[in-house]
């Protein structure tokens, strides 16, 4: 028979009281720690929510400044969001506003400073910057930016860059490749075909690549 079974109720009570005295600090500490972890988790979740709301409000404020034409204020406030997921989106919006205001150089500077961890968004930034660089007479840099890109828009812009540099044959090759990758119903086909004709090319009647 086990020893505990031989102890009477008084002895059992004494054992419990003794154990509680010896372990009370640990019990209280564990309880406090558990409550602190629960409270801390709720506090952290609330802080994260508040931070997301604040970032969203700051983003909306910059967008409103761009729409109002206050580009200097928009540029300052966009700088406060550098490093956030909103930064590349604001860079694109700000550059568009600057270009519409006639300040192409400012738009170029804005896009030069922009970056994104998202490959698709990064490609959009490079493409828009390349188009502005071609327009600004910096076609070689535009070609470097779009090296390796094979989407129709990038190919067309590379063709524009080669054309600006007087390289008609290279421009024709880029335009032809761009047309092959475009859907036959794409609205930009007509302009691209005109560009191809300008450098001595003829649209392929076979249409797009399969």
UniProtKB/TrEMBL annotation:
It is a single-pass type II membrane protein. The keyword Membrane applies. Its main location: membrane. Residues 17-200 form the Ancillary SecYEG translocon subunit/Cell division coordinator CpoB TPR domain. It is found in: Cell membrane. Gene3D superfamilies: Tetratricopeptide repeat domain (1.25.40.10). InterPro entries: SecYEG/CpoB_TPR (IPR018704), TPR-like_helical_dom_sf (IPR011990), YfgM (IPR026039). Keywords: Cell membrane, Chaperone, Membrane, Transmembrane, Transmembrane helix. GO terms for cellular component: plasma membrane. This is Ancillary SecYEG translocon subunit. The lineage of its organism: Bacteria, Pseudomonadati, Pseudomonadota, Gammaproteobacteria, Lysobacterales.
